[in-house]
Design a protein that fits this description.
Pfam families: DJ-1_PfpI. By secondary structure, the chain is α/β, with parallel strands linked by helices. The chain is 30% helix and 27% strand. The protein has 2 domains: 189 residues, Rossmann fold; 195 residues, 3-Layer(aba) Sandwich (Rossmann fold). The protein is globular and about 60 Å long.
Length: 392
């Protein structure tokens, strides 16, 4: 079925990694088409993203993120904004360049001031709204350093407390940044006229450890929160409030044919104490990939936990190297699954009935995906098995 809604995302080099990836994959999972356009770049080109997180210094640290693909022509998108139901502008340093780009500024002005359709601004991208003259009188939040920019542009500043807060004032949705993505997705769906059925009361547990894959943990975590699920993360070696460091595994350049390198990603917060985890309080368990599963399989309680989820007929979802935990728990036997190169031999050794090299597969209550580019399909399967539907 063709998407019935369409969103434009303005992109550029050094946009914040999560603030591009979460709306892109979350909306795609819900059947919303997302066009990613960047001035000076053509479809198929890549934008270099940036990881912004606090790593012990007074200001956030910027680290290299993923290569994020441009999917639409910027000039063509700007020429026909009427086909878009919402505009998303991630944060990051790229908005400084967009704020002095006449076509980008006029695009935002037309969308916000004339069409008055939903506009999402996060972290620092409120600068573009200010440059477009569309901030006056708008209640708005942002990263703390943006307060005076908001006020100078005639906006009404709102403290971003808690960090998960999304402020909706008419057609403008604003937030401090990626910690608010659950609320951002929820408010954006509402603003586009979506109806979400079945999400309230559903609970999902994420199993994580250090060097969990950056996208594979955070994107489904925020997406499921966005459709109303209670989402929690637990690690057998950490307590509630501590963080797991994530890892970025980007696609290796085609010319090298090499295994992708590993870069440090964002921190991923543990929200539940391991000893307090009760399978009966959850409807689904998600095991992201990265190197974290190598630690999880050394903890018999983690292996037993996913086995118990399956034994109680609950949804078990794994992506990429997360399959190692499922294989150890005996959950891949006679199952159809999707697995990339790292886990394909292990999936076969674990007795999988078939191993699809890409995409995502649902076999009964088991959902597997090959890698993070398959996140939209992975999230869609989980939402479907949880009995959640989104309609416009």
């Amino acid at each position: 079925m063709a998407p019935c809604k369409k969103v434009l995302m303005l992109c550029g080099d050094y946009m914040e990694d999560y603030e591009a990836a979460v709306p892109f994959y979350s909306l795609a999972a819900l059947g919303v088409a997302v066009d990613c356009a960047a001035p000076g770049k053509a479809p198929g080109d890549a934008c270099l993203t940036a990881v912004h997180d606090f790593l012990g210094h007074e200001l956030y640290t910027e680290l290299p993120g993923h290569r994020f693909a441009v999917t639409a022509d910027f000039a063509a998108a700007a020429a026909d904004l009427s086909c878009y139901d919402a505009l998303v502008v991630p944060g990051g340093r790229f908005v400084e360049q967009l704020s002095v780009d006449p076509l980008a500024v006029s695009l935002v002005a037309e969308f916000a001031a004339e069409m008055r359709r939903p506009v999402v601004v996060t972290c620092h991208s409120q600068l573009l709204l200010a440059a477009a003259g569309a901030m006056r009188g708008v209640r708005c939040t942002a990263f703390f350093s943006m307060r005076h920019v908001v006020e100078l542009a005639g906006g009404r500043w709102v403290e971003p407390e808690p960090f998960g807060l999304c402020i909706t004032d008419g057609h403008v949705l604003s937030a401090i940044g990626w910690p608010a993505h659950g609320e951002i997705i929820r408010e954006l769906l509402r603003a586009m006229g979506a109806r979400v059925d079945g999400g309230r009361g559903q609970a999902v547990l994420f199993l994580c450890a250090d060097y969990v894959d950056d996208y594979e943990a955070n994107v489904p975590f925020r997406a499921l929160a966005g459709v109303g699920c209670r989402v929690e993360a637990a690690c057998p070696t950490k307590r509630k409030g501590e963080s797991c460091v994530t890892a970025i595994y980007d696609a290796a350049p085609a010319a090298t044919g090499a295994v992708s390198d590993e870069k440090r990603g964002h921190n991923f917060a543990v929200t539940a104490d391991w000893d307090d985890v009760d399978v009966d309080q959850y409807d689904c368990v998600v095991v992201p990939g990265g190197r974290a599963p190598e630690l999880l399989v050394t903890h018999e309680k983690a292996v037993a936990l996913v086995r118990k989820f399956a034994g109680k007929g609950k949804v078990v979802a794994s992506i990429d190297q997360g399959h190692l935990l499922l294989a150890t728990a005996g959950l891949l036997n006679d199952k159809n699954c999707a697995s990339g190169v790292p886990m394909s031999v292990i999936a076969n050794l674990a007795g999988a009935a078939s191993v699809q090299p890409d995409g995502a597969v649902a076999d009964g209550k088991l959902v597997t995906a090959a890698s993070w580019p398959d996140l939209a399909m992975f999230i869609a399967h989980i939402i479907d098995l949880l009995g959640i539907s989104v309609s416009f």
